[in-house]
Amino acid sequence: MNYQDHMIRGAPSGTLGLATQSGWMNSEVFPQVLDHFISHMGCSIQKPAVLFIDNHESHLGIEVIDKARENGLSIITFPTHTSHKMQPLDVSEYGPLKSHYEIALNEWNLSNPGKRITIYDLPECFSRAFYKALSLENISSGFKRTGIWPINSEILSDHEFQAAGVFMIDNRTLILDVSNSVHKEKQPLDYEDDLNEPSTSAKHSTANVIDRSFSEIAAIRPLPKRKAKEPLNHVKGGQTLVASLLQALLKKKMRLRNRNKNQKPCARRPSICKSEKTVLKMRLKTHIFCLTIQVMKTLNLTMI
């Protein structure tokens, strides 16, 4: 897909525009994103910097690692399924950004009645939301709430990292060392040999150790099961309620029948007597219909 400059018309200053066939980030365009970041960050070997990103495959290419090492940039990736807790953008930025972006879209529609918004109008709306949401307070709050800065290792508990262990192979942790551009395998600690050692032992540090003894995500968060519907024969009180409704219906019918028998015929006004009879029949039919609906609702039946 060919990128055109008018695609980011009205976007925030310094915006980098890229285009892919799928619309998602890939390993072909991410090196350009890293170049854009390095140019604005001004990092180098003498002035190192740290970049926190998720561990998407496009972020871990050889070209990316070499470029980061050459410019003194250390890359730290978040464990799988933990970005909603550890990534500052997810914690304090995306929520306000979505709210302000929705407001900007509504304002555009009000300011342009009868017009249809296009993808070329979105950068301008996003720019309004960008400057309102990405304030200094929100950015600082994101790093503080995730424990990145000021450093707070106790802000997240160990069980919040358990989902990442499902995707580890052979109970091993892969560590990306940008300085050496190699992958090292860290073997899990043998806790059985250290049960008798004091907690202050310097042999092993358990500050960054994550328990990866399970292999199924269902062990962390069991999948919800659909509650089976009870059969109609086992409805509590169903038969008693039906019997009472039918009994009330029969009593009502007998009462109306006796009322018609005891009523004296009206010879002078036959038309009035006939109309009263019709009204009584309609009331009886209406009452029977209402009782039938109640019985069907009780037994979870539907009308055909």
TrEMBL record:
GO molecular function terms listed in the Swiss-Prot or TrEMBL record: nucleic acid binding
Residue ranges constituting the DDE-1 domain according to the UniProt record: 20-143
Name listed for the protein in its UniProt record: DDE-1 domain-containing protein
Any Pfam family: DDE_1
InterPro entries linked: DDE_SF_endonuclease_dom (IPR004875)
Domain of life, source organism: Eukaryota
Organism per entry: Araneus ventricosus
